């Protein structure tokens, strides 16, 4: 009986320890989510002050992050999603700034610049991975091929969602201006985000993870990813408000191509 008591007590302790360990790592992920979002939005805001080419650069950087790391899954608030939510929210933020303060032509150019940059990177990366390594580094090369082997699929998923969603955003923006006008920018941004992020999330997760993980995990990732992207979209509205105030005080630097 005594042995059974100690065994059950030790088992309960190990279970509690496992629960707290999982909760600790989840808290780390949730904290990093906020830190990454604030840092990424801050970088985009700085790029806005520096000029249009710098905004294009932030779009390229975040699209490359999605292509390289989008296959990585994480646990947030007890649910599974991927790590690409923050970079994609930053891409949305940059496109919104171009539409709010620049021209639809500048936003359209950003779409194709981003796609061209990612495709160019993928072609060069795949050619580089084909190079043969000496026997001393063959194990490292094999691991590199395994890790980066999924990148083209993730890139296809992100670029397909990016192409469809960004054109949807531009159409919604122009339709809003024709029917409602320029006022109520915050309502315009949130409404467009709700519609566009739903389309992008479904496209991305369906292409990126279908067949790789279970259908239930794909569905969970879509729901959680959409909620997080919407939350990040709401988080970006104070930054957009700040850009309107900056424009009112002094016109931002515009560097034309």
Query: How many DSSP H or I helices?
Result: 8
Structural class: mainly alpha
Strand order of the largest sheet: 1-2
Q: Poorly predicted ranges (pLDDT <50, ≥5 residues)?
A: 9-14, 252-257
The major beta sheet can be summarized as: 2 strands, antiparallel
If you had to describe this structure to a student in words, what would you say it looks like?
The structure is a single chain. The chain has one domain (18-118, 151-249). It is mainly α. A hairpin with a 2-residue loop joins strand 1 (73-76) and strand 2 (79-82). It is built from eight helices and two strands; from the N terminus they run H-H-E-E-H-H-H-H-H-H.
Fold blueprint:
Elements: H1 2-50, H2 52-69, E1 73-76, E2 79-82, H3 85-101, H4 104-129, H5 138-148, H6 151-179, H7 185-209, H8 215-249
Antiparallel strand pairs: 1-2
Task: Give a brief outline of the structure.
With 257 residues, this protein is mostly helical.
What key attributes describe this structure?
257 residues; mainly alpha; two-stranded antiparallel sheet; 2 strands; globular; disordered C terminus
């Amino acid at each position: 009986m005594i042995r059974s008591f100690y065994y059950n007590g030790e088992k309960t302790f190990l279970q509690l320890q496992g629960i707290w360990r999982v909760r600790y790592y989840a808290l780390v992920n949730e904290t990093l989510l906020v830190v990454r979002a604030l840092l990424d939005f801050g970088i985009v805001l700085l790029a806005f002050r520096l000029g249009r080419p710098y905004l294009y650069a932030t779009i390229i950087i975040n699209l490359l992050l999605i292509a390289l790391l989008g296959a990585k899954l994480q646990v947030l608030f007890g649910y599974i999603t991927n790590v690409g939510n923050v970079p994609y929210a930053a891409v949305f933020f940059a496109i919104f700034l171009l539409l709010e303060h620049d021209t639809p032509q500048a936003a359209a150019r950003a779409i194709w610049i981003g796609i061209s940059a990612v495709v160019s990177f993928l072609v060069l990366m795949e050619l580089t991975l084909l190079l043969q390594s000496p026997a001393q580094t063959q194990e490292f090369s094999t691991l590199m091929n395994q890790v980066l082997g999924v990148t083209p699929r993730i890139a296809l998923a992100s670029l397909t969602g990016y192409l469809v969603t960004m054109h949807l955003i531009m159409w919604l923006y122009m339709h809003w201006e024709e029917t409602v006008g320029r006022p109520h920018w915050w309502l315009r941004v949130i409404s467009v985000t709700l519609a566009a992020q739903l389309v992008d999330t479904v496209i991305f997760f369906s292409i990126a993870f279908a067949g790789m993980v279970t259908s239930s995990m794909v569905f969970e990732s879509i729901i959680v990813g959409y909620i997080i992207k919407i939350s990040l979209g709401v988080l970006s509205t104070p930054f957009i408000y700040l850009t309107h105030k900056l424009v009112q005080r002094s016109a931002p630097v515009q560097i034309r191509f």
